[in-house]
Design brief:
The protein is α/β, with parallel strands linked by helices and about 170 residues long. Helices cover about 20% and strands about 15% of the residues. It has three helices and six strands. The longest helix has 13 residues.
């Protein structure tokens, strides 16, 4: 359903405010939400430096994370910073390495860590859903979280206590 997906992106000529984009909790009206569906969010991470910024967008993301209730049991995130021939699913229960897949930014950006753990059980469920739709996929046991994932996750959930499964895209 369109009401379950929100596009959030910083744009210099279209500043984000909490008035311009409804908060997730506005969807909690039972007439608007199919409770069998897990809401999906499309969130643009902007430049990696977003992790250091304090602006309307970063405050919005922080507020959004606080208002998503109940807190997710796991997060599945597709990242455009990981491309592969077939959707590739991170497959680990360990803590991810924080990947700094960028260059030329403030030194303090390279000190930020987001030590989220993976979830092989969630990865297996995703793999099964792909298979049921005839979509081939593969597992990856090595890749860490790239900035397309950890910058946003750190804003939404500063405590990395929710398991994360990262998935590549195949353009």
């Amino acid at each position: 359903k369109c009401s379950d997906v929100h596009a959030l992106h910083p744009h210099p000529t279209h500043p984000l405010t909490t008035q311009s984009i409804p908060l997730y909790t506005n969807l909690q009206n039972k007439s608007e939400v199919d409770n069998s569906m897990v809401p999906s969010l499309f969130i643009c991470h902007g430049a990696p430096s977003l992790a250091l910024e304090d602006n309307d967008y970063t405050r919005y993301l922080q507020q959004l994370g606080q208002q998503i209730t109940p807190k997710p049991e796991a997060i599945v995130i597709f990242t455009a910073h990981w491309e592969s021939e077939f959707p590739t699913i991170s497959y680990t229960n360990d803590v991810y390495e924080t990947i700094y897949d960028f260059g030329g930014f403030a030194p303090e950006l390279y000190q930020i860590k987001y030590p989220a753990k993976g979830s092989t059980s969630v990865a297996e469920k995703v793999e099964e859903m792909f298979k049921a739709q005839g979509i081939p996929s593969k597992r990856d046991t090595k890749r860490g979280l790239d900035h397309g994932s950890w910058v946003v996750l750190r804003m939404l959930y500063p405590d990395p206590d929710i398991p994360v499964v990262q998935i590549s895209v195949n353009p």
